[in-house]
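Hi team,

As requested, here is the filled-out complex form for the guanosine-5'-diphosphate run. I kept the field names the same as last time so the parser does not choke. Let me know if anything looks off before we queue the next batch.

— J.
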Amino acid sequence: NLSYKLDRAFKTLKGTGKITEINVATTVKEIRRALIDADVNYKVAKEVTDTIKTEALGRDVLISVSPGQLLVKITQEELTKLMGGTKEDISLKGDPNVILISGLQGSGKTTFSGKLATHLKKQGRQVLLVACDIYRPAAIEQLKTLGEQIGVEVYAEPENKNALDIASKAIEYAKKNGKKNVIVDTAGRLAVDEQMMNEISDLKKHLDPAETLFVVDSMTGQDAVNTAKTFDERLNFDGVVLTKLDGDTRGGAAISIRHVVDKPIKFISTGEKMENLDVFYPDRMAQRILGMGDVVSLVEKAQESFDEDEAKRINAKIRKNQFNFDDFLSQIEQIKKMGNLKDLMGMIPGMGKMIKGMDIDDDSFKPIEAIIRSMTPLERENPDVIDGSRRKRIADGSGRSIQEVNNLMKQFRDMRKMMKQMNKMGGAQRALGNLM
Ligand code: GDP
Ligand code: MG
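And here is what came back:
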C-alpha cells in the first residue's frame, strides 16, 4: 500500500546526512509512484514531485531531522498547498440561503444533504431539505426518513415531475416559514447524461444558489476527476464534497480534483451515519494521502527527543570542564535516537577523529556503551580515578579487552582536551549549539 511504499521511499534516505541530487532523485521517484498509486493524476504527481525536489535541494538539513524526515515534511507541505492550503467554508449569505447538491447517482448526495442539515442545525440554523430526485420514489422516501431522524423538515411533492418547480415552491415555503437555509437534493444518473446535466444546470440558473456543491465518491479514482470536470464545465460549482473516505479509500482524488477544476474541497464524508461529516482541512488530508500519520509523529518525536534541557545541561558541563562518562553515554543515547550517526558524531568536539574511517551504526556504540556501563557511578563522574586495576575490572565486567578500555579512556581524554581548547576559543558552545 501507499504507506508502505512511501516508507520505503523515505528509507532510501535514512542514514544519509545530506540531501543530494542523487538521493533526492531516487526518493522523489518513489514518492511519485506512491502518489500515482493513490490516484493522484500522473501529471499532477509529476508536478508535485518536481517541486519537492527543488524545495529539498534548496534547504539545509537541520541537524535535528534526517533528510528523509525533511522530505516527508516538504512533501506534506506541497500536498497541503496543492489542496488550497487552508479550509474554505461554504457561503451562507443568501436569503433564503440555497445550497444546491449535485453529483452522480450513488455518490452520496442524499446522505450528504442530511449530514449538512445536521451540521447547520447544530450551529442553531433553520434548515429545510428539498427532495428534487423526481425519478425514484424511493429517493424521496430516503430523504424523508433522514429528515425525521435528524429532526429537519423535508419539502417533497411526490406527484410533481418538475424539479425546478418543486425547488421554486420549496424556496417560497422556506421564506414563509423562516427557514433560512434550503438544501436542494437532486437526482443523479449512474454516468453523466445530457438530461441530468440540463436539469441541474437549469436549477442552478433559476434558483441562483449561494452555494453549489459537487458530491463525488472518492473511491472512483480517476473517474472522479473526469466527472468533476464535466460537472464544473456545466455548473461552475463552488465546492466539492468528497465522500466515502472511510473505507479503503484513496484520498489522492482530492489532489487531482482540486488541481483539475481549481475549486476547493469543503467537506469530506467518512461514513453512512449523520455525524460522519468533516470540514475539509488540506493539511490533514495531505497526511492522510501520504498515509504517514505515523511517520509524521515519528519525525516530531525525533525532534523532541533531542531534548533542549539536556543540551543546555551538557553545554554547561563542557564549559566548566566537567564533561564525564555519564554525559558521554547520554550523548550516545541522544544520537542513537536521531539517525545520521556519523554526521552527528562528527560534530561532537573531538569525536570526529575517533570515528574517522569507522562504519557507524547503532551497533558501533555497543562496545563503548558496555564499557561505560561497567563503570561505577564514581568512575563515570570522575574518570580520573580509573587506574590500572579499575580498568581490568571494567574490561572483565563489560566483556571487552583491556586494550579497548584503554582506547576509550584515551579517546575520552582527547575529547576533553579538545573541549577545553574549544572553551578557550569560545567555540564549544557554538559547536554543540549547532549539534543540539
Ligand atoms: P445519492 O444517490 O447520491 O443520493 O447517494 P446516497 O446518499 O443515496 O448514497 C449512496 C450509498 O452510499 C448509500 O448506501 C449511502 O449510505 C452510502 N454512503 C454515502 N456516503 C457515504 C460515506 O461517506 N461512506 C460510506 N461508507 N457510505 C456512504
Ligand atoms: Mg439521492
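Two things worth flagging: Strands lie at 97-103, 127-132, 153-155, 181-186, 211-217, 239-243, 265-269, 277-279. The two ends are 36 Å apart (CA to CA).

Thanks,
J.
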